[in-house]
Amino acid sequence: MSAPLRLVIFDVDGTLVDSQADIVASMTAAFEGASLPVPPREVILSIVGLSLPEAVAQLAPGAEAGLRAAMVDAYKSRYMELRAAAGAEMSSPLYPHVLGVLNQLHDEPETLLAIATGKSRRGLDKLVDGHGIRHLFVTQQCADDHPSKPHPAMLQAALSATGVEPRHAVMIGDTSFDMEMARAAGMLAIGVTWGYHDAARLSDAHMLIDDIRLLPGLLQQVWGQIA
Question: Which of 11, 22, 174, 178 does the annotation list as catalytic?
Fold first, then answer.
């Protein structure tokens, strides 16, 4: 009897790529353009993973809706400028060993890879094409099509698109929003410690890893327990 299909879903910012410099610079431009005090760097990074409108709403709760919308546009414009100037590989570099692990998992016949990100479709397209990794993922869920994390809609869509049961799926992410989303979707939540939320904020994770090279072996243990 063949093994069931397994689905490994990855967050992007803070999990696969280190985009913090452009995120902070773009949010700084948005706040300066609105003549609002710029939040500290650690506060800006704390909202990474949320959809951009929700992130701005959390960082500027007192701003009226029209101003927040303008800040969202300013963020997007600055982010695109930075990415165009440097290219995706420099602007949002893959973390060490990520590409090797993605290729290793992709080569497993029973393993499917997916993305669930707070990025826009346009931003995600630029990133996966810039790194040449689009072909590794069977489905890519983003903020344009779903409510913001931690709502489980992205994960539910990925499950529906692949036909994989939640118990055969896992979410890999660096923020509490990823972990809450995974639990809400009924799947395993694996937190990574090299991203933008520290281990203390990943209390909803079922397990943590501090080196992505450990992921394939960990997943084999997990799949073995639920086979």
Answer: 11
| Whole-number percent of the chain with pLDDT over 70 | 98
Residue 198 among the catalytic residues: no
Would you give the DSSP letter of residue 38? P
Q: Which amino acid, 83?
A: R
Q: CA 134, CA 113: separation in Å to the nearest integer?
A: 10
Can you tell me the distance from the alpha carbon of 180 to that of 65, in angstroms, rounded to the nearest whole number?
A: 27
Neighbouring C-beta atoms of residue 135, cutoff 10 Å: 9
Of the candidates 113, 83, 107, the one whose C-alpha atom is nearest the C-alpha of residue 12 is 113
Residue 220: Cβ-neighbour burial (10 angstroms; 0-12, 13-18, 19+): exposed
The CA dihedral of 134, 190, 49, 161, to the nearest 10 degrees, is 50
The H or E element that residue 133 is part of is none
> pLDDT tens digit string along 72-112?
999 999 999 998 888 777 889 999 999 999 999 999 999 99
Task: State which H helix or E strand residue 225 sits in.
Answer: helix 215-226
The torsion angles phi and psi of 211, rounded to 5 degrees, stand at: -150, 120
Q: What are phi and psi of 2, to 5 degrees?
A: -75, 155
Give this prediction's pTM.
Answer: 0.93
- Is the peptide bond preceding residue 150 cis, with omega within 30 degrees of 0? yes
Number of neighbours of residue 64 by Cβ within 10 angstroms: 8
| Residue 13 designated active-site | yes
